[in-house]
Amino acid sequence: MKNRQSMIPVYYRLAEDIKQQIESGELKHGDLIPTEGQLCEMYGISRMTVRQGLSLLAEAGLIETIKGKGSFVTCPKLNQLVIDLKTSQATGGEPLRYQLLGVKLIRGDHDFARELGCAESKVITVKRLIYKGDQPVAIEDKYLPYLKGKPLLENQMDYADFPEFVAKHQESVPVRNDMVISVDTLSEEQYKLLEAEQGMPALVIKQVIYSRDDKPLGISIMVCHKDRFQLTATSYPLSGRL
């Protein structure tokens, strides 16, 4: 019977071995790692397999290859943060409840319709209120191009996270999510829905999801109660993907 180790591709085991040496400090920033030929002998594998392993390490930001000199260990980059926007994470992991406030079509003279490139057509808007326990924590407005014959399912409107929501509605594949975080003052409608004080500041999170050809596929605006919603972010070196 094959064990788990024997089922892992050799090039991945090579990359994992070198990654562990880097993260343990055995290999340090600027150190030259063994050559392709040396790695072939050490692991008893072909040069092509070694190159696959080195390619993984390069993609993970752990090594940099300089033609004619070899591959060198690089410092992990920790200046990029990963934000988990699953609403359950942003509200401390507590169970959430969703209230669908409305679904409607708007004409192309709306700002979000123009941003979606739908100035000559219609846009679907979905509004929902998000609760933690009995307290409202956020209002979310989603804007999607109207696609004839592509109905929105109730479970998508109620529960799907925004990227999943866009992916299920569109024919194009979403590949990028741009985010802008800002602070604004709650409108009269918003402070009433969030059961907040009039004029209270709120966290506003705007997401725009794009296709591979840079076409906007959907826009989400979340207005969050300042005391009941928080964003968390973690910095992972790219090696976390390996």
Rounded mean pLDDT score: 83
Shape: elongated
Largest beta-sheet details:
6 strands, antiparallel
List how many beta strands DSSP finds: 10
- Amino- and carboxy-terminal Cα gap: 26 Å
The CATH topology of the largest domain is Chorismate lyase
CATH architecture of the largest domain: 3-Layer(aba) Sandwich
Beta-strand content bin: 25-35%
Find the structural class using helix and strand composition: alpha+beta
Helix content: 25-40%
Q: Major sheet: order of its strands?
A: 4-5-6-9-8-7
Radius of gyration from CA coordinates: 24 Å
- Low-pLDDT segments, ≥5 res: none
- Write the CATH homologous superfamily of the largest domain: Chorismate lyase-like
What is the domain tally?
2
Report the total helices: 9
Write the element-wise H/E pattern from the N-terminal end onward: HHHHEEEHEHEEHHEHEEE
Q: What is the CATH class designation of the largest domain?
A: Alpha Beta
